[in-house]
Amino acid sequence: MSRLPVIFIPGFTGSFNLPVLLDWRGPTLSGWDFPPFVDYGKTLLQTFTQAGYRRNRDLFVAFYDWRKPVEESARRYLTGWIDRAKKAANANKVVLIGHSMGGLVARSYIQSPEYLSRNDVARLITLGTPHRGSAEAYTAWAGAEPHADETLRTVFAVYLWYLRHIHPIQTELDKVKTIQTQVPGVRDLLPIDDYLLSGNPPQLKPITSMASRNLWGEMANQAQAVATLTQRVAVTTITGVGFNTLSTILVGPPPADHALRYADGVPLSRHYDSQGDGTVLQRMATVPQANNLPSLAVSHGALPDNPQALALVCHELGISPGVLGAAPAASPAPPTPRLVVMTASPITVEVAVPAGLPLAPAGVLGAAPSRARRRQRRVRGRNYGHAGKALNLVVIDNPVAGDYQIAVHGTDYGHFAVGAMLVGAGEPPVLGGIGATAAAEPEITTVEGDIARESDLFYTVSLRRADEPPQVQFDARSTMVAAVERLGSAMSERGGVLGAAPVVDDRLGGALRGEAAAVDAMMAAPPDQRRQMIGELIELCKTMVGDERERALAIITALERVREAVG
């Protein structure tokens, strides 16, 4: 008898499809992948591949829109993935492996009335799933301040960055309303047990008295509902412990100036317990009457790719992948540092990567990793947009400390944004202990501007240290060089200045002839002279290239941006 196909259901933020996440496209199974700037899910897939599974034959990833309620994700995505897996493997049943929120999506499907007629899941294995919720969801849902593990915070920060620059009016007006209307799935992660403290002395606030409630979780965890789950499918839970995990939050009165923000109280202090994986408490990640395996010293985001966790999964399924070896490693490899450059339309982007040694990590335990010298290279951005709307991403693994030149090219007329962030280079999570502070949202340095079709602008991303965010600045000199070169070429095509006024300033003439020293002399001139010379170039462009409106506007846009920056 052939083995059953395996479907991995990622956790919150573990699925990436920008057009869907930004509501440019409706629900679809096409165009999804893991986020390209994190390592999430790669070792899990490699493990099953080494065991003889083949992607899209008997091994699938059920990507879904994690913004939506888990019931909707189960109905619109998971059932489609299950049907696809059964057809490809010629099987009647599948095995589901759900990480974090993915386990809730699986439960929503299995516990639904529609499952009775399908009856197509043989086993469910959950990894760090918040079956009874996670207190970390409160600050994200009620205050638009997500914390939790680094992978989640990174992907969520990128999503909010794109949302902010694609729908700026909505997102800048009210962040809390944006989360609660655009990302209602967070509500399904709220705890269903009392977790907020208030008063003096502090006492637990009853869940039943709160405005922010996980009604789906409360219903799914009633005794009869849990019995339905375990009777229909064999359930195994794998949990992590030994990491500071939020257990309760002391809150004060809600703010008087906002009806939605922290309606159940503004957080004053966070209380931690080491009996959890850094995001979900162990007692909240198990299911009554299920096969709840002994906990591992593994953090929440690492559970799907940790060798020890994968060894348990493989043992439960009776498979022996060679990639794990005889003795799984006691701790996972540190995350790969990455420089992420992102842009919002209407531009394309190319990054010139400097040569040198990779950035030294901010805090690596044990011996320093080998750092081979990297060669200089250029990397073009990948467009994750849809229907002509460009959403570019450049991901540079193990970045070098230095300056990265960013070349943006206008594909249309309009406003654009360039952002840069460093991920995977911080301190590793600390085992044990009580009272750790919440991690901050990853910092994305952003510049904005206006661009014309075919215009070329240049920026510099400066990366110096692993514990400092990259800085983004306009590169006036490179932009000037490119603009003057284009103007000089246009004039040459027309036989020189023709009827235009002669170029008296030697610096202007030299620049138009492509002399780098002349451009440097222009840029080093006093501010008034610089403005005057750039103004003369703009007028010359209007005279000489005005008959080619698009070409002229592209050059003038770049020159005006330089004048604005250096004037």
From TrEMBL:
Question: Which branch of life, at top level?
Answer: Bacteria
Which BP terms does GO give this entry? lipid metabolic process
InterPro entries tied to this protein: AB_hydrolase_fold (IPR029058), LACT/PDAT_acylTrfase (IPR003386)
GO molecular function ontology, one term from the record: O-acyltransferase activity
Q: Name one Pfam family in it.
A: LCAT
Report what the protein is called. Answer: Permease
